[in-house]
Specification:
Layout lengths: L1 H13 L10 E3 L1 E5 L2 E8 L2 E8 L3 E3 L25 E4 L6 E11 L2 E7 L6 E5 L5 E6 L8 E5 L2 E5 L1 E7 L2 E8 L7 E8 L1 E4 L2 E4 L6 H25 L3
Antiparallel strand pairs: 1-15, 2-3, 3-4, 4-7, 5-6, 6-15, 7-14, 8-13, 8-15, 9-12, 9-14, 10-13, 11-12, 16-17
Helix pairs in contact: 1-2
Length: about 230
């Protein structure tokens, strides 16, 4: 009986495993067509589609994130690279929105070339979004200063990495300050580092996973009942 239970429990916990999560961060692979900007990244075993609305365009300049230390941290070891990024000039109160096809845990945003010396530029994040600046520094065009005030971050040629707190299906922001060329991209961390130990972020189980677990529990109960009937006298 114990051997049967061990086998069933082993199947229950091995079967739901999906693809192996990435060991660092996944950044959006952007694509664009007239009137449409979108892309995708992964978290855990899930591919998350991103749709963007606002005043940005997509740029694939490989130099944007070439000072890696300003856009990475202990948890985020890779830059967005050549996946593309959103570029904007701001100067309006138009709402920029990033919509995710499913909830993202603690999403991350890289900001580049935000403002310039004497010309500060601010991102005002909406709907009570909370975040921390994980890193910042010089970018391809120098600079490096970012400051945070509540749900807003201001740059003077600022470059850096933000991590949001909680789960999000949308991140909205306003860029009210005009400046020639600045922008951002979004992604997700696939690992958590706690007390020096690295563990993967577990995606929310699919409904099929729940059915498998319930089926396994039912099989255990049925097996135990049958074993009891075989042993007990009638």
């Amino acid at each position: 009986m114990k051997r049967n239970l061990a086998l069933i429990i082993g199947i229950m916990f091995i079967a739901p495993v999906q693809a192996t999560p990435l060991d660092t961060a996944s950044w959006t692979h952007w694509t664009s067509s007239p009137g449409s900007i979108g892309g995708d990244f992964t978290q855990g075993s899930h591919t998350i589609d991103v749709t963007y609305s606002g005043n940005a365009l997509v740029n694939y300049n490989p130099d944007i994130y070439d000072v890696a230390s300003s856009f990475t941290s202990a948890e985020v070891t890779n830059t967005p690279g050549t996946n593309g990024t959103l570029i904007m000039t701001g100067g309006t109160n138009e709402i920029n929105n990033l919509h995710f096809s499913q909830a993202v845990i603690n999403p991350i945003i890289d900001l580049f070339s935000v403002g310039q010396g004497g010309v500060p530029v601010t991102f005002n994040f909406l709907d009570g979004a909370t975040f921390s600046i994980l890193s910042q520094g010089a970018g391809h065009w120098g600079g490096g200063l970012l400051t945070q005030s509540g749900s807003s971050v201001t740059g003077w040629e600022g470059n850096g990495l933000l991590q949001f707190h909680g789960t999000y299906t949308d991140i909205s922001f306003i860029t009210p300050d005009y400046e020639f060329y600045y922008g951002a991209t979004v992604g997700a961390i696939n690992t958590v580092i706690h007390d020096g130990k690295v563990s993967a972020i577990n995606a929310v189980p699919e409904p099929a996973t729940y059915m498998l677990v319930l089926g396994g529990l039912g099989l255990i109960a049925w097996t135990a009942g049958r074993r009891k009937r075989d042993v007990d006298p009638v």
